[in-house]
Automatic annotation (TrEMBL):
GO terms for molecular function: DNA binding. It comes from the Bacteria. This is Winged helix DNA-binding domain-containing protein. It comes from Spirosoma arboris. Pfam families: AlkZ-like (PF06224). Keywords: DNA-binding.
Amino acid sequence: MPDSPLIQHRLINQQLAQPLFTRPAELVAWFGAMQAQDYAAAKWAVGLRLPNTTDAAIEQAIADKSIIRTWALRSTLHLIAAEDIRWLLTLVRHRLASQCGTHYRKLDLNEAVFAKSQTAMIRALEGGQQLTRPELKDALTQSGILTHDLRLNFLLGNAAFDGLICFGNRRGKEFTFTLLDEWFPHTNRLVRDEALASLTIRYFTSHGPATLQDFVWWSGLTVTEVKEGLDLAKSRLISEVIQGQTCWMASQTLDYTVLPTVHLLPSFDEYLVAYKDRTAPLGSLGLSQIVSAGNGIFSPVIVVDGRVVGTWKRTIKKAAVTVDTHLFFPLSEEQQQAVALAGTQYCAFLGYK
C-alpha cells in the first residue's frame, strides 16, 4: 500500500486506482489534456484508466471525433476532448508561439509564410479531405512554400496552434491531417478567465497534489498566469504543505484509501511527465534510469503502489505480444504475480489472449 499521502492522492486523482469513468472522452476531459506524441502509448494511457476497454475502443473514440489529437501544451502532441479543443488552444496559443520563436527565426518562418502556408492547407483540405504528411507537404511545395529540414514540422504545428488543422483518421498506418472546423465544428468557447480557471481546476483535480511549478511545467503558462489561475479557482481547490512544498488539489472529499496496486505505465504517462518534480514516484531512482539518454524519451515503467520499480517493453509478433520487464528492485512473489497480471491485461487491451 502506498506509504505517502501524496502518492495515495495522485493514484486516485490520476484514475489509476478507483477509476470513475467508462468513456475515453470523459477521461481525457478530466485531465484537460493527455500527452500523446507516442500514439500507441497515449492510447494505453487512456485504456489502463478505463476498466475492460480496448485499443480498438480508443481508436473508435478518435474516429468518432470525441477526442482530438493535436499540438497543444508546450507545443507537444496531446489528446484533448473535442468539446475543449478551441478554448484550450486559445488560452495557450500565445505561449506556443513564444516557445517556438527561436526555431521560427532559424528557419525563416514569419507571419507572411504562415499565412501563405495556411491558405495552401485550406485549399488542399477543404471539403472534408484528409491528407497524409507527404501529401500535405506536396501541396505546400506546389504553392511555392519550402518544406525542407524542420520547416514542415513548424508549419503544421503553427496551423494546429491556430486551430486550423488537427489529426484526422489514420489511413493504414499513416496519420492524416484535416481542417478542424470541418472535423468538429461545434465546441465550447470560453472567455479567457473562464478558460484559465477551468484548466487550473482540471490540472489540480486530476494531477493533485501538485505545486504551482508543476502546473507551470505542464501547461506551459507563465508563473504569473498560473498564480492568476489559482486565484480564479481558489473556491474549488485547497492547499496543503506536503514535504515542505505547498501543494494544491481539489477541495472535494474522496476516499483516498488505496489498495495495493501494480501498473504498467506507457512512455510519457501523465503520472510521471506532468510534474516538474518527479521525486515522489521515483524515490531514490535517477531520471536517467527511465529516460533514454540523449533523446528525452520516457521509458514505459512498472509502478508498484505508486513507486517506479522497473521498466518494461512489448514485442508484437504475428499472433502474440510479449511483455519483458527490467526490475530495479526485488519484488515479492505476490508483486511479481501482479506484474504478470498487468501484462496480461495489457495484452487483452491490444486484443491478444
